């Protein structure tokens, strides 16, 4: 995960709100008749995604299972892995991918490079990520997540001619990825064990 996705970032508005609050207070103090304070506008509250029925086996096996946290982590892993695959640099995401899937990705990247092709990808964002199936067997949990993401994808040959995709079009991409982890493990990370569409 990226550090800023775990810790959050400052937007710069925190200090601005403080300055505006001080200015309002000074204005009120200079008036002979102070008007009642104007409440700050409430910030928009982002609704939480609904809890998936498909995740029931995970919650039953592990009452501490945090579906929303899992989905956020899965979205982060999905973006990192898709970008790494497009760039051909799978080393940075190796620890998140099971060996058979990693070998399949590595083979596809090798075939692309042997053909003299280059993939360009701009990951616009995940529109939706939902657990569509889950199971627990012999202490191993697995969750299949359907991703709908927006991506700009284009593949070029060695002469730089476009052979697939469109660098000026955002595609809605649907993927089905399955993640797995041993429930007894101290490692909270899930591993990508299967991909599909």
What would you say about this model in short?
With 197 residues, this protein is of the alpha+beta class. The protein is 34% helix and 30% strand. A hairpin with a 2-residue loop joins strand 1 and strand 2 (140-156).
Named CATH architecture? Roll
Uncertain stretches: 1-33
- Span of the ends, CA to CA: 24 Å
For the record, the CATH class is Alpha Beta
| Global outline | globular
> Could you give the count of β-strands?
5
Secondary-structure element series: HHHHHEEEEE
Work out the radius of gyration: 23 Å
Category by helix and strand content: alpha+beta
Major beta sheet summary: 5 strands, antiparallel
State mean pLDDT (0 to 100 scale): 82
Question: What features would you describe in this structure?
Answer:
With 197 residues, the protein is of the alpha+beta class. The chain has one domain (53-196): Nuclear Transport Factor 2, Chain: A (Roll). 34% of the residues lie in helices and 30% in strands. The protein contains 5 helices and 5 strands; from the N terminus they run αααααβββββ. It has helices at residues 3-7, 13-30, 56-61, 67-87, 99-114; strands at residues 118-137, 140-156, 162-165, 171-182, 191-196. Strands 1, 2, 3, 4 and 5 form a 5-stranded antiparallel β-sheet that branches. β4 (171-182) and β5 form a beta hairpin. 13% of the residues are buried. Mean pLDDT is 82; it is low at 1-33.
């Amino acid at each position: 995960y990226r550090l800023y996705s775990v810790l959050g970032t400052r937007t710069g508005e925190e200090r601005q709100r403080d300055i505006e609050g001080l200015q309002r207070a000074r204005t009120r103090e200079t008036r002979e008749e102070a008007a009642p304070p104007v409440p700050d506008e409430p910030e928009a509250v982002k609704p939480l995604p609904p809890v998936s029925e498909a995740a029931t086996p995970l919650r039953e096996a592990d009452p501490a299972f945090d579906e929303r946290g899992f989905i956020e982590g899965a979205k982060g892993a999905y973006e990192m892995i898709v970008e790494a695959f497009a760039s051909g640099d799978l080393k940075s995401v190796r620890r998140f991918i099971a060996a058979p899937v990693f070998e399949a990705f590595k083979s596809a990247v090798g075939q692309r490079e042997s053909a003299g092709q280059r993939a360009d990808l701009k990951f616009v964002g995940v529109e939706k990520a939902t657990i569509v199936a889950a199971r627990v067997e012999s202490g191993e949990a697995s969750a299949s997540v359907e991703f709908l993401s927006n991506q700009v994808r284009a593949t070029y040959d060695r002469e730089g001619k476009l052979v697939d995709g469109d660098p000026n079009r955002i595609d809605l991409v649907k993927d089905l990825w399955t993640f797995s982890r041993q429930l007894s493990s101290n490692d909270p990370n899930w591993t990508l064990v299967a991909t599909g569409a």
